[in-house]
Write a structure and sequence with these properties.
globular, alpha/beta
């Protein structure tokens, strides 16, 4: 099965109106590969603003959302609000949320289920820390995280899985294309065994972790890497080169 390459840009807690206008202008004017799906993860405050500046060929994502539609959850944003503001995706379970804000596998699973039920597409993030990798626990960790997701996600057609080794995020260290491919292939085997062959064949698995214009082509050539979730580089002009990694 041909899986459509998908590149997400996660702006994290960066940008103001001027900077976002600049990024949107640069993306709007760029010759982006039409065979690649492009999603930008925008701070919730600027979703409406970014949506108004981008062509319809580029989707907008929230970077987080809560597990219920509304209520006394001060400071939280619901999938319904993101949709109303013009987002059609949300990034959930990013390692920033897991590591800094102590979100559990279970909470992330619940958030994914609710976002999907509300009609948002989900980029669901998994990945191991440096300690876990050095202890030889990479597969154990990503299988556990994916296993909890699979308890909550019954239909995977609107999900992209993002494998982001925590030790490679923003550190300048990148998993080698071989290391990344190894984990992606292992995840596909896990999906075949624990969910279904159909989901394993069709689910797109992105790689994230210090992806740059310099390393994106070799990563993109790996058989089980179906796109990227890009952090810092998504704020720079090189994001266009990363989107065009398959071109």
């Amino acid at each position: 099965m041909v899986r459509k390459f998908c590149v997400g840009g996660n702006w994290k807690m960066n940008g103001d109106k001027a900077a976002i206008a600049e990024i949107c202008k640069s993306l709007s004017g760029a010759a982006l590969d039409s065979n690649t799906e492009v999603v930008v993860g925008c701070p919730a405050l600027y979703v409406i603003y970014a949506r108004g500046l981008l062509p319809n060929t580029i989707s907008v994502a929230g970077q987080n959302a809560y597990k219920v539609a509304k209520g006394a959850f001060t400071g939280e944003v619901s999938p319904a609000m993101l949709k109303d503001a013009g987002a059609d995706w949300v990034i959930l379970g990013h390692s920033d949320r897991r590591q800094i804000f102590k979100e559990s596998d279970e909470l992330i699973g619940e958030k994914c289920a609710h976002a999907l039920a509300e009609g948002l597409k989900v980029i669901a993030c998994i990945g191991e820390t440096l300690e876990e990798r050095e202890a030889g626990k990479t597969e154990e960790v990503v299988f556990r995280q994916t296993g909890v997701l699979s308890k909550h996600i019954k239909d995977w057609s609107n999900v992209v899985l993002a494998y982001e080794p925590v030790w490679a995020i923003g550190t300048g260290k990148t998993a080698t294309p071989q290391q990344a491919q190894e984990v992606h292939a292992a995840l596909r085997q896990w999906l075949t065994k624990n969910i279904s062959q159909a989901v394993s064949d069709s689910l797109r698995i992105q790689y994230g972790g210090s992806v740059t214009a310099a390393n994106c082509r070799e990563l993109a050539s790996q058989p089980d890497i179906d796109g990227f979730l890009v952090g810092g580089a998504s704020l720079k002009p090189e994001f266009i080169d990363i989107v065009n990694a398959k071109k």
